[in-house]
Structure formats: structure tokens, C-alpha cells
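Retro notes, item 3 of 5
We never archived the inputs for the 2-oxoglutaric acid complex last cycle. Fixing that now. Sequence and ligand:
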Amino acid sequence: MDTDSKLNLLSHIFPDFDKVTLLELLVSCEGSVGKAKKLILGDGITDDTEELNTPEKESVPNIVEVPEAQVENIVLQEKRKIEDTIEAESSLSKIVKFQKLNPPLTNRTVTLYSKHDIESVLPNIKIYPKFLQKQLADDVLDNLVSQKMLFKAKQFYIAGSLCKSSQKTAVFGDSDQVDYDPVYQDGVTKPLKMTPELIKCRILIDQKVNMVLQKYHEDSQDKADFLIHENWQSDFCVGNYFPDNKSHLDWHTDKLTNIGPLPTIASISFGATRIFRLRRSNPTNSTIYNILLPNNTLLIMLPSTQELYKHSVPTLKDSLVRPHSKFGESRFSLTFRMSYPEFEKNKVYCDKCKKQMILRRLFKGEDIGYYVWMCMGSFKGVNCKGFKYARFSGRTGESEFATTHKSKATRWLSSLEK
Ligand SMILES: O=C(O)CCC(=O)C(=O)O
Ligand SMILES: [Fe+2]
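Structure as it came back at the time:
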């Protein structure tokens, strides 16, 4: 069945929806009429990686399924058209309104195409397509490609087994002091010098982030006393290199150990257009939002993004939306971050094994919403379960960031979600 016939069918079932909205829905449902129908009717849709990789079992009768490859082609073409107008006001806002009237469904995936839709559905995210002037964007990408051999897979332990990350990482920074993450086993933590291209890019990003943060501080009602208000100046950048569509970044929140609570992280993408995903950390089956990140798009994760959401760069069969004209499937992201120097001066150590502790957030259990320190040993394959609550009372002059008393501990949930 071609796209027009699918649209006619949907239009017949849902006469109140206009065709553009239905087309958007169809595209966000990978061209499946059944999924689009379920989305409108409010049935939960499971749409994770495995499901997307297996041919869909159509639940609507009388629909002749088109071959998977053909659907993919249609979806890709439509996505390209839509992506070209990413900044234009999109009819998807109708879907957003529809979503607002209806509580988010579980396990559902929604693709947000326009700046307006992304920022309305995810108020802590700001997105700027075509952020750098074209020449500078090209220069940064050329520069990253010339350094690609310096990006390395990260090694870490999960449940005692040594694992390697799929994408490759390099840290750029001016100072050797930046201890990006003491957990990793390899040379990834030693920062590389920022090249002149990266420095230009950083200056423009810092400027943009400060403008955005100023507005954020003015607008946000609920200010946690440990939220940093001073000038935001990134002092290091974690770069990711995805050589092809197979390399990915699993669901995670960014490490807080050296950037502190409620951080701002500004991430700029270069090369192939991939999908970036966000979903609330809790509940675990909450709606997944897809955002397309074309070459030279800046995405700012404002304070509380790391506390409330997880993010990922999946390797779905259509997660490579568009290869880059010169570098094909290669994609780089540069994530600019500002370190929290007080942590460097006052590292927290484990009382049991004396190793450094890592700042984490608890997303489940009775201590949900608390910041805690966990012994680094646990992340290096050592079975030490050292644990302390974290405590942030306000930034200046702080020297004690840990407590064994829960009553004195800092709970981000209480300041963000009343
Ligand atoms: O590549 C991206 O867009 C995301 C990178 C990321 O999540 C990270 O560096 O922690
Ligand atoms: Fe991240």
C-alpha cells in the first residue's frame, strides 16, 4: 500500500485529523497504519530496538502490508523532507496538543521534528539547528576527522565484567586538572588540547548557553539552592565519535562526579544525522522522544535534564537518518561541560576501601531522588559497596559534600518535582 492509500485509510478512520497531521503520525510510526491507529486511540505501543528490527505484526485487519524495505524508503524520504524544514513551524504541534490533552502513554515513541515541538514537549531542552556559520562547522568537522584516531572506546565494569563502549570518546580541555571520570580504565580521561576550531566553537557555545541560562533563571519558579547561577564557562568537552550506524550510546545520564548537581551540558553534532533519544528516568517505560540531530545542530540540556531524563543515541535501523555528504555515516558530538572545582579540592573517599567515590542519582527504591556517593571500587570490578548520601547546601565555600545522615542529604526530587 502506498503512502497516499495509507493516508486515505487513516483519514477515513479519523475524519477529525487533517492529512498533514496524519502523515506526521504515520512517519513517526515507521509507516505503519496499525501503529498510527494505536497511537491515536491511545493503546500502548512497544517500540524498542528489538521490536523495530523485527517485522511488525499488523493488528489492523484488511491492510496489506508493504515490504519493510519499501516502508523504510518512504519514511526516509518523508523524514528528509521534514528535516529540511526543521526550523519551520510544523503541524506536529497539533500532535503535541493532542498529547497534552491525553496523558503520555507508556512505551511509546514520539518523534519531534520542529524546534517548537521539541522545546514545548521537553522544556529543559533547547535546540539550535545550523548553529555555527557554515565555514566554521566544516572546519570543525574536518578537524575532528583528522583527529579521529585519538578517540578511544571507553572500558568499564558491569557486574564484574569488563565492557567496552561502542562509540569512541576523547576529552578536550585546557587543563590537566580535569578528571573527566575516574571510573574509566584507559587513557580517555587525559584531556587533549583544544584546537583553534574547537576554541572558536566553544566561545560561541558559552555565549549562547549564558543567554539561555539567564532566561532559564528568570523563568524558573522552583530554584534549588544548590543550582549554580554564576557565569557558565565550559572548561572541558567530551567528544564522541560514531564511525558508523552500528556505533551507539546506550541509555544513560551524564556523570556528575566532576560537573556537580543540576548541570548544563551543551552538545553540538557534526557529520551524519542520527537520532538522539530522551525519556524520563522514571517510570522506566515512559514515552521515548526522538530528536533528529543534523550536522551543526546545538542541543542544550538545561539543569534537571540529568536528574529527570535519560538519553541515548540508538542504533535502530533508521537511526541513521542522513549520511554526511563528505564523511558518510561518521558522526561526532562535542559535549561542552563546566567542571565543579570544589569537588576537585574536596574529593569524597570511601570509608571502607579509601577509594574515591562517584556522584550518582538514585532513580528507584525508597531513596529515589537522592544524590549519593558510591565507591569507585564497584565500578572497577571490586566488590566494595561503600555508600554515603550527598549534601549540597549552596555552592560558595562548601567543603563537605557527603553525609551519613539521610536527614541532611540533598534530594533533587523535592526541589524539582513537588
Ligand atoms: O552524541 C550525542 O549526541 C550524545 C552524547 C552523550 O550523551 C554524552 O557524551 O554523554
Ligand atoms: Fe550523555
